[in-house]
Amino acid sequence: MSEKKRGSPSAPTPPIVSLVSGGIAGGVEAALTYPFEFAKTRAQLRQTPGSVSPRNPFAVVFRTYQGEGLRALYKGCGILVIGSVGKDAVRFLSFDTVKNAFRDKETGTLSPVRNMLAGMSAGVVASICAVTPTERIKTALIDDARGPKRYRSTLHSIRLILREDGFVGLYRGFAGTTLKQASATSFRMGSYNILKDWQERRHVEQNTLVNFANGSIAGVVTTLCTQPFDTVKTRSQAAEVTTTADAVKSILRDDGIRGFWRGTIMRLGRTVFSGGILFTTAEAVAKILNPIVAKTELIAA
Predict the structure, then answer these.
(1) Based on C-alpha coordinates, what's the Rg of the chain?
(2) Residue-wise pLDDT tens digits, 122-139
(3) Are 141 and 151 in contact (CB under 8 A)?
(4) 3-state class of 69 per DSSP?
(5) Contact present, 188 and 222 (Cβ < 8 Å)
(6) Residue 288: in which H helix or E strand, if any?
(7) Taking the model in full, what pTM does it have?
(8) Gap between the Cα atoms of 16 and 1, Å rounded
(9) Phi/psi zone of residue 251: left (φ > 0), alpha (ψ -120 to 50 degrees), beta?
């Protein structure tokens, strides 16, 4: 993120500010938008034999609410919130670390290409450290809830995955997840910061409304450009064991090329809000933390 509202352009963002603001923002965003994520995941999973599942994610929400109640729409939410705290803490820290290293000394900004590359690097780190295991568990729980329900709880699902597949089972779908994270973070963090840097050069005030709008635009760009990676990731992390290559083949076999964009509408519904919530929350937390960190560093010096 750019530094004008998180310190002066000549000062790099403190790592602790990036870590804490990103983590809090990730947790808030995941909790508030989870029903959209649930419906998107259900829409992307393969249909069980003998049943016809609605392809419209909004119909998924309605049918799930009617048949299983409100709690069912939050199946797997806990693990996603935990993962999102870690994911966005790592993403913001990684992005700001790269940005601080390569930013222009006078303006405190990056070129558009460097913004995108910084986001890509942050996405790879986040996938390894937090995203793949938590997405694997979340997807397995949502998929399992459609059938006989082998998993009694999140902890039980983790134990069962470890018992059946070992530690590597938590990283099933790693290739698809990392491709999605690298591309999504590149577009999301990159486009947000490109917009913000452009506005700051033209002295556009960075308030809550502007931050939310920038985050929402970044969410739309991210969704449209990275949906195929998300669909492959979801298929490869279902409860039924499969590989990334098998996931690609199953999507083509079931729906053709259009299948790679299954769940786009619901994901757009989520990312428009989640992008706004994520960056607005991160900016708000950073505004609180920056003076505290600056005062602490001044005292320590």
Answers:
(1) 20
(2) 999 988 988 889 888 888
(3) yes
(4) coil
(5) yes
(6) helix 264-300
(7) 0.72
(8) 14
(9) alpha
Taking phi over 0 as left and psi of -120 to 50 as alpha, with beta for the rest, 244 belongs to alpha
Tokens of 251: 């999507």
Query: 249: which strand partners?
Result: none
DSSP 130: I
Distance CA 14, CA 113 (A): 23
What confidence score (pLDDT) does residue 2 get? 47
Of 128, 139, 115, 132, the C-alpha closest to 40 is 139
Please state, in angstroms and rounded to a whole number, the distance separating the CA atoms of residues 286 and 6.
6
Instruction: Tell me how far apart the alpha carbons of residues 114 and 180 are, in angstroms, rounded to a whole number.
Output: 19
Mean pLDDT (the chain, rounded)? 83
Look up tokens 């900004």; give the residue. 109
DSSP string of 226-280, one letter each residue: HHHHHHHHHHHTSSS---HHHHHHHHHHHHGGGGGGTTHHHHHHHHHHHHHHHHH
Residue type, 46: R
